[in-house]
Every structure is written in C-alpha cells, then in structure tokens.
Amino acid sequence: MSIVRTVVRTPLAAGAAVVAAVLLTGCSSGSGPVYGAPGGVAASAAATAGSSASPSAGLAVTPTLGASGAPAFDTPVFGSPSRTPSGPPIPTGAFLRGLLPAAATVPAGWTIDGDGGESDTGTSVLEEPSDPLLPKATCTEMRLAGTILSQDLQASGAGNEVYDGKNKVDIRLAAYHAGDAAKVLNEIRAYGERCKSFTGRSWGGDPVPETVTVQPVPGLGDEAIDMKMVPQGPYDTDEIIVIRLGDRLLSLWGNNIVERLPNFMQLAVPLSKSAR
Fold first, then answer.
1. Nearest-5° angle of CA 227, CA 186, CA 223?
2. Could you read off the pLDDT of 225-273 as tens digits, one per residue?
3. What CA–CA distance (Å, rounded) separates 192 from 208?
C-alpha cells in the first residue's frame, strides 16, 4: 500500500544488523555509534552491549524459526540449566506465543497481516540469564523496542505485530525468573531517566537533539510505564508501553511514521488481562 504524505518524516540512521548481532551473541564491538534504525529508532555499533565482558562459557545460540520459516533473531538459548528453580514454572516461548493477539482475538479495528511476524524462543527456557546489558548502554544506542529493552534476564519470550489500518504495533511478551521482571522494568525506567536529553545522529550524520520521557501508566497490570523518544526536526517519534504482569513483561511499541502514533491503549488494556 502506498502512503502519500505532504510532510516527509525522515527515519534516523540504521543499525539493525548490529542490534541483531548483539541480541544473538551478547558481545560488544568497537566504538563509534551509528544512530537510529528505520522508523526513527536508535542503535549503535555497540548496541546495548556496553560491557567488555565476554560471553559465558558454553554459550550456544539456537535460532527458532518463525511461522514464515525465517529465523527469529531474538531467540537466544544459553548454556545448560544451573539455577535452582523458585516459584511457579517459567512458561516457554511457545506457550507465550499462544497468549499474543490472533486474528480471532485481536480488538476491533486491528488486523494481523499474514502470520503477524510471529516468533518465539521455542520450548527452551534460559535457566541462567547473562549479566544485564541495559545499565551499560549509552543514550545514543537507545532503541524503544521490546526486543531490546526487555532482553536482559529474559528466560523466554514471544512476539508478533498488529495493524490498525495504517500503523503497526509490535508486541513482545517475555517471562523471567522470580523477581527479574521487576528488575528489568526498573532498568528501563533508569535508562530513560539518565537519557532525558541527548544528541543523536540522522542518516546523513547531522546532529539530532532527542528528548526522552518516562511516565507511569496507572491501571495496567502490576505496574506500567509509557516511554517516548521525541527528536527535533522531521524525524519519527517512538513510543513504547511496558507492563509488568507478575514475572512477565508485556511491551507494545511503534512510531508516528504515518503522521500519528498508534492507540496503544486499545491493545494494552485487554492484553494486560489475557497475557498473565
């Protein structure tokens, strides 16, 4: 579908390949940020991996195929079980996938295109999460995506995307060991607070001042935040809502590339009840 706009919003510079590599390996690369990604989001040559620590011994990455047959880039499985279980069993990614919106359950006015880009971490659960990376991430690496912000300490996860006729919302449901979901949500809050104002770069290398806000969202799950990254100039504004549901985090994110942000609450309210 072609969209004709009188105002051209410019996506910021891309670092998607670097982000994907970091999510799979958890290791860092050299300095020199590459700012943004299609849709007005930010990444870096050191994307979310500000640590120089090497991956733990025995690390193995097992990609899970999505419904389309393409490998899901955010499906790491590390090492072997070593943590003593506490609390109820952690759901697998395959189970979490069944809690995401489907064509028959998506709210009125929303649709799923094809398989909705579904992906999950399969039937494995990460028993020994790696060290958190988000506290070490720089502001210019910021990308408001659940696949990035909720990755720390994640034991399993699943995601898909839905459309409101014009705009897309990506959805991620991640599960954690007892207490870790609250830790990760606090990480995300802290990241937004320390990056309230910073300067990134456009595709062409021009400086782009950014403002980041983090607001609580009452009435959603156990606790929830609404985080926005707003650039100065003709660039996309990014927004993400992160909801804690016990030891799970539900993330919904998108941008205003079609001149308006999605109505996240139309999805967040019902999903915050059904995704527990």
1. 70
2. 999 999 999 999 999 999 999 999 999 999 999 989 999 999 999 999 9
3. 17
Residues 6+ apart with CB under 8 A from 25: 55, 59, 61
Region class of 188: left (phi > 0), else alpha (psi between -120 and 50), else beta: alpha
> 242: helix, coil or strand?
strand
Q: Could you write out the DSSP letters of every residue in 154-189? A: EEEEEEEEEE-SS-EEEEEEEEESTTHHHHHHHHHH
Dihedral through CA 63, CA 70, CA 244, CA 212, nearest 10? 110
Per-residue pLDDT tens digits for 104-157: 889 999 999 877 889 999 999 999 888 899 999 999 999 999 999 999 999 999
Q: For residue 32, give Cα distances in angstroms to 25, 191, 201.
A: 19, 20, 11
How many helical (H) and strand (E) elements, i.e. helices and strands, does the chain have?
A: 5, 12
Scanning the structure block, which residue is given the tokens 């994640």? Answer: 154
Q: Can you tell me which residue has the tokens 């971490």?
A: 121
Distances (CA, A) of 114 to 16, 73, 122: 23, 19, 20
Token match 């952690």: residue? 90
The structure tokens listed for 240 are 């993400």
Q: Does the pTM of the predicted model rise above 0.90? A: no
The continuous run of DSSP H or E covering 253 comes out as: strand 248-255
